Amino acid sequence: MGKKDKNDELTKNAIKWINSKKGKMTLEKAYKRAKEMTDSLNEARRVDPNSLRRPITK
Amino acid sequence: MKDLYDVFPYTLDKLKSILSEVSGTSIEIINKKFICIYFRNYFEDLNAKTIVIEKKYIDHDFLEDYAGYYVKCFKAYKKECARLHFFNFKFSIKDFNKLLSGEKSSINEGKMDLGYLGFIVVKPLPETIIGRTCLKTYSTEGNGRNYPIKRPYSANLFGLDLEVKSIAFQEQDSVVAACATSALWSAFQVSGRLYQHPILSPVELTRAACDSLPLESRFLPNKGLTLPQMAHAIRSVNLEPFLINALDEEVLKSTIYAYLKGGVPLILTVLLVDMSNKVGVFVEKHAVAITGYNIDRDENFPCTQRGYFLKALRIDKIYAHDDQIGPFSRIILDKKKIKFKIYGKTIEHISMNTSWRGENNTIGSMRAVAEDLLIPVYHKIRIPLSDIQDAVMHFDEFIKALQDADLFPVKKRLEWDIYLTKINEFKKDILNKKNIDPKLKHEILIEGLPKYLWRAEAICEGKPVLDLIFDATDILQGLSLKRAIGYDINSYKFLKVISKESVIADQYKDKPAWKILKWFNEAN
Questions:
Q1: What's the complex ipTM?
Q2: β-pairing verdict for B50-57 and B5-9
Q3: For A26, phi and psi rounded to 5 degrees?
């Protein structure tokens, strides 16, 4: 099978998979994982109000 | 002539005696200054060979500080500074005299400029004598060092045009400026040139910071600033202060990398903790201007913290202008956890190795815990890094799901290189790229794009796969991919086909990954 045929086969299989119940569930889980990561990162970025009050004196 | 200039072979002892002589500060005090210890290694690395002293030099920043504060002292402080120029080749005062008088000399302007290492302005003050200092950076050849925000500084030495690429540094004078002002001053050296705003002197900066947010006590002599005051100083030059918590290492590294690579300086506030004893003791809060970073080139595998691979996480050192250590001082992100007492509590946190000395007088016994990053951002750069990272992380998880099912053309995980850039730099990079379709290259180069862009490059085992370009000047609700470039043609075509499936649009249209998938969905 040539490279082009392989890629076409891969794309066809991927289309089949994302339209399947398993594919949809897996993508939903992927979204939830990503959301956990981004929420954790955004929480980490939140400024502590106490750091605003204390002067930088060194 | 000798009262106007002099030339000496460089040695550290000679430098110290010059500093003592021109500033009027005793050699004992000069010997105790840590910055002189720092200069020993610095000038050794730069291979300094000759010092030229310009004895009567009027420095703009010191003149402002002098007019704003020192002139009113009973003691008659001088307004003239001295400026020391450093070169990496040997020449004598005879050679220099001949050059200036037009006679045949072994040196010429071209050679002087090529061998120029920069200058130090020496202020006529007791103890805090190191004024505006612009020195060549440590070498970036064959190592992972990066100084993306250095800019050219011109120095005219009796008619000779000399130039050095650096970022100006100065020691805090503890009168008109403490560390916060010094850090802002260094940051403004970069942003002033980038965004054409006035570069305030230290006394002007301190005044601007305290203008509407006065300290409970007097602000001159200045003992420090709060973050809101530093933010106010940033607003006074028409920039927007962007503040984020930097305790988390991924936030620290990804933010420093993304903005610094885009030419934007950052200020890092840290908690200095003395680890001379078993349990650390919090000493004081400190601020430094971040001027560079080191990417660990020995790291064979991409770095991850939360599960997605980011080039920025390869940073293992950052370089900062620390006004009590020196220019481009190294801070090592060695991930060492320390326990320390602060504000009545004992906490444990990852810390960084610095050159600070604790109670035991050992270099490195004072460690730093990153607290906040303050970024002076041009108002047009509206989209923060966080929004781009969110979209990319969601998109990456989508690709990972396909990879886990063995359904994506690239089998290994992608590593993401996310940074701010400008249209000119982006197009220059595309123009020089060899691995891009000529028709596509032409299309991108003539395309109208915003001035400020976020760029997310996906790499796999050193090879570029995708390049995602976002408009940094957009509004968040309108944020979407401006253009995607596929270096791996199979992945690119694959994404265009897959994203057109209605199930993808249904599942993703309200999710962050759609900011990227939508472009592929609409692409021909």
A1: 0.94
A2: antiparallel
A3: -65, -40
